[in-house]
């Protein structure tokens, strides 16, 4: 029988004790400790979330797994972009990806990335420097305890499409920005500025001091959403599923809007209601910007100042 051992350099051996004889054999080397990430990592899954996270460039990728059973052009393009960015990519079975993602809805792509870093409310006091027009009126979205990750993801997707400048979430009694929410947002969460706050009322008061109007959406509101001027600096506040805005949040709002309903139910799902109002704000802002640009172009440089003074806001916000 062969004995297998590990030789030890002479310099590392303990000298023999002349009274007790040779030094007893050293204890076996314990196995190496497992490797832990110094920064928290999380899972992203789905083609859109992984692709948008790569485009946004805000998160560090550790590695990406793709299902060896899936072969199509769209996946090939994503893999090529990942490798060009220096992200390790390897193939695994679809079952292994399902275990890692904890869902079969991973579309054959699972990424391990650095956890999302949230902003503070102070970070939203100034416009997004990446915005096409940083001097344009600002639109923020605040969510008062939305608990369903699907609703959260849908609202983030709408917010990104409607040009929202930042999103305020609460730390407690609200859905986390989980892989499910990121998947539901189709990756839009990777492009948004998102702040988490402990106290939403206090955060809204701080935004008021930055000259933003706080506009809540509530079935008991006094004004229809499409009859209100949403072209100024404002924060749209949406309440939780079923119960709506908390009382303190409602009282903090400067204005309360409603969506008129013609059927038997009194309100829409929060993600549907948010989409309706956010895109109404987007429509008003786009029309106002187009009207102003057209007027300035037609009048020429000499009349720019006079026309800008003549473009009055609709009665509503800030009136």
Provide a descriptive summary of the structure in words.
This protein has 319 residues and is α/β, with parallel strands linked by helices. The protein has two domains: 41-114, 60s Ribosomal Protein L30, Chain: A; 121-294, SPOUT methyltransferase, trefoil knot domain (Alpha/beta knot, 3-Layer(aba) Sandwich), CATH 3.40.1280.10. The protein contains nine helices and eleven strands. The strands form two sheets. Strands 7-6-5-10-8-11-9 form a seven-stranded parallel β-sheet. Helix 2 (73-84) links the parallel strand 2 and strand 3. Helix 4 (149-161) runs parallel beside helix 8. The protein is globular and about 55 Å long. The N and C termini lie far apart (95 Å).
Question: What is the topology?
Answer:
Blueprint: E1 41-45, H1 47-56, E2 61-67, H2 73-84, E3 89-92, H3 94-101, E4 109-114, E5 139-144, H4 149-161, E6 166-170, H5 179-184, E7 194-197, H6 200-209, E8 213-217, E9 223-224, E10 234-239, H7 247-252, E11 255-258, H8 270-299, H9 304-310
Helix pairs in contact: 4-8
Which properties best describe this structure?
single chain; 319 residues; alpha/beta; 60s Ribosomal Protein L30, Chain: A; Alpha/beta knot; seven-stranded parallel sheet; four-stranded mixed sheet; 9 helices; 11 strands; 32% helix; globular; disordered N terminus
């Amino acid at each position: 029988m062969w004995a297998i051992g590990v030789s030890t350099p002479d310099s590392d051996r303990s000298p023999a004790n002349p009274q007790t004889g040779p030094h007893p054999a050293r204890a076996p080397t314990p196995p190496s400790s497992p490797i832990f990430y110094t920064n928290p990592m999380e899972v992203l899954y789905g083609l859109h979330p992984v692709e948008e996270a790569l485009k946004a460039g805000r998160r560090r990728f550790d590695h990406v797994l793709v299902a060896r059973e899936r072969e199509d052009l769209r996946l090939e393009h994503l893999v090529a972009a990942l490798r060009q960015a220096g992200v390790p990519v390897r193939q695994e079975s679809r079952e292994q990806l399902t275990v890692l993602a904890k869902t079969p809805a991973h579309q054959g792509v699972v990424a391990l990335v650095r956890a999302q870093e949230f902003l503070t409310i102070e970070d939203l006091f100034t416009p997004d420097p990446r915005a096409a027009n940083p001097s344009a009126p600002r639109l923020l979205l605040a969510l008062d305890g939305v608990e369903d990750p699907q609703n959260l993801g849908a609202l983030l997707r709408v917010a990104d499409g409607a040009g929202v400048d930042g999103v305020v979430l609460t730390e407690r009694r609200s859905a986390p920005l989980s892989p499910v929410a990121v998947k539901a947002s189709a990756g839009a969460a990777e492009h948004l500025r998102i702040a988490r706050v402990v106290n939403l009322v206090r955060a809204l008061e701080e935004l008021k001091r930055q000259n933003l109007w706080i506009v809540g959406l509530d079935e008991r509101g006094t004004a229809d959403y499409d009859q209100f001027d949403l072209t100024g600096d404002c924060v749209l506040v949406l309440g939780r599923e079923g119960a709506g805005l908390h009382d303190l949040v409602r009282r903090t709002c400067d204005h309360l809007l409603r969506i008129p309903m013609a059927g038997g139910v009194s309100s829409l799902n929060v993600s549907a209601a948010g989409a309706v109002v956010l895109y109404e704000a987007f429509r008003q802002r786009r029309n106002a910007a187009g009207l102003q640009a057209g007027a300035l172009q037609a009048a020429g440089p000499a009349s720019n100042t006079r026309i800008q003074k003549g473009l009055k806001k609709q009665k509503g916000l800030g009136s």
